[in-house]
Amino acid sequence: MIGNAPFFVVGVLFLMGLVSLFLSKNLIKIAIAISIIGSAVNIFLVSLGYRAGGTIPVHFLAGEGSTMVLPTPQAMTLTAIVIALATTALLLSLIMLVWRHYGTLDIDEIRRLRG
Q1: pLDDT tens-digit map of 53-87
Q2: Which one in 32, 49, 54, 81 has a CA-CA gap of 20 to 30 Å to 26?
Q3: Would the keyword Transmembrane turn up in this protein's UniProt record (predicted)?
Q4: In this structure, are residues 107 and 27 in contact, taking their beta carbons and an 8 Å threshold?
Q5: Which residues 6+ apart lie within 8 Å of 25 measured at CB?
Q6: Percent of the chain, pLDDT > 90?
């Protein structure tokens, strides 16, 4: 039913984040691009675990012989979300320190001021 749509969305999000990461000169926009790339990876992991007609991955609730979705990509996605949250918090705190020190978030301006 869903076909390849999630993989198309993953590709579009990943490319959007990658293009923004390489073309942006603002540190906040770079942090947002990294978050978008992380979201694309999470959608990819969840899409890998999908099974048509699958039920919850709990054996005693699913019943005997039923098809279940894969629980490993779900666990990996939860771990990736926690890691992305910590990484984003660290990145934004470093960006705040750069702004306090240099008074700008433009990469070229920071390089020029640094010497």
Answers
A1: 777 766 666 666 677 777 888 889 999 999 999 99
A2: 81
A3: yes
A4: yes
A5: 106, 107, 108
A6: 60
Strand partners, 55: 68
Compute the chain's Rg from CA coordinates: 20
| CATH of 5-109 among 3.90.800.10, 1.10.730.10, 1.10.287.3510, 1.10.490.10 | 1.10.287.3510
pLDDT over 60 (residue 1): no
Q: Is this structure's pTM higher than 0.90?
A: no
Contact 13, 43 (CB under 8 A): yes
